[in-house]
Design brief:
Elements: E1 17-20, H1 24-38, H2 49-57, E2 61-66, E3 72-83, E4 86-96, H3 105-120, E5 124-129, H4 134-143, E6 147-152, E7 171-177, E8 199-203, E9 209-214, E10 222-227, H5 231-237, H6 239-258, E11 261-267, E12 277-283
Parallel strand pairs: 4-5
Antiparallel strand pairs: 1-2, 2-3, 3-4, 5-7, 6-7, 8-9, 10-12, 11-12
Helix pairs in contact: 5-6
Length: 288
């Protein structure tokens, strides 16, 4: 998934080539951009060269967005996996150097993954992402057209990198169907304007919202599942309220996905209500 803390550089983007890693120097460049993208200080979080080489040569995929001087501005690493009864490319990570974020490299890497998977006959790409990162949710569901059917509590355990330090690593699993020529779009947010809300909130005098009650989902129809619009800032400014949101979102996803709902779209701040973001969930009849 693209790194959510998108900084932008005012410099013109030099010529970049997105391709498979081919040399030891390429793999080292992919390691270095991992460090920059996530602010990694613990080297155990950097994917070893031998692991990337083995995956890249035997069904997986290591892509770099390579600069003319052979550095990488972004990279992605994936390996063959399985979602239920289907083979997929499991995209373990996609990271963009902060100096090159906001330039479309995350999307370009995902489209290159899709192209390479189609050549190999793979029709599904899956990856994990933080359910509280609104930018990633919109990118995955509304732009790529992925769907979410599963939630993993604290998937990686405690982390020390800049983006995950000190918080549980809850993750949603995105499933991106890539068969066919058309790129699917997420559900239009206005379709969900009158859907019931799974998380009931209370508003304080400052105009900020705190989760209060997580409702039981109905047996059918659609639901709105709210998340805060800027969780990274909230964790700095009001860590207790951020913890309440994390717990409520975890419970809401467990209840809804367990009843056969899936996330099919995302409404960014302002699309349904000013300053508020929502997952769009629809019942599929798969649950209890």
């Amino acid at each position: 998934m693209p790194n959510p803390s998108a900084g932008q550089s005012g410099r013109e983007l030099p010529e970049i080539t997105i391709r498979r890693a081919e040399s030891v120097a390429d793999y080292h460049a992919c390691q270095e951009v991992q460090r920059r993208a996530w602010g990694i200080s613990d080297e155990s979080y950097v994917v070893p060269v031998a692991t990337m080489v083995g995956a890249n040569l035997h069904g997986g995929l290591v892509l770099g967005a390579f600069l003319p001087d052979h550095r990488a501005a972004a990279m992605s690493f994936g390996f063959l996996g399985r979602i239920r009864d289907r083979l997929c490319l499991y995209s373990q990570l996609t990271g963009v150097d902060p100096d090159y974020q906001g330039r479309g490299l995350g999307l370009a890497l995902k489209l290159k993954q899709r192209e390479e998977c189609r050549k190999s006959g793979i029709t599904l790409i899956a990856w994990a992402f933080d359910p509280l990162q609104a930018g990633n949710a919109r990118f995955n569901l509304s732009i790529l057209g992925a769907r979410v059917r599963s939630f993993v509590d604290n998937m990686y355990g405690p982390r020390t990198d800049r983006l995950n330090y000190g918080v549980p690593t809850d993750r949603l699993i995105a499933e991106w169907e890539i068969e066919g020529d058309d790129q699917p779009a997420g559900l239009e947010p206005l379709t969900a304007r009158d859907w019931p809300r799974l998380i009931e909130t209370v508003e304080d005098p400052r105009g900020t919202f705190t989760p209060h009650v997580v409702h039981e989902p109905p047996a059918s129809g659609g639901l709105l599942l709210e998340i805060p619009p800027a969780i990274t800032s909230l964790r700095v400014l009001d860590s207790r309220r951020a913890e309440l949101w994390q717990a409520a979102v975890r419970e809401a996803f467990h209840r809804s996905l367990g009843r056969g709902f899936e996330a099919v779209g995302f409404a960014k701040a302002g699309e349904l209500e000013p300053g508020r973001c929502f997952y769009l969930l629809q019942a599929t009849g798969r649950g209890a």
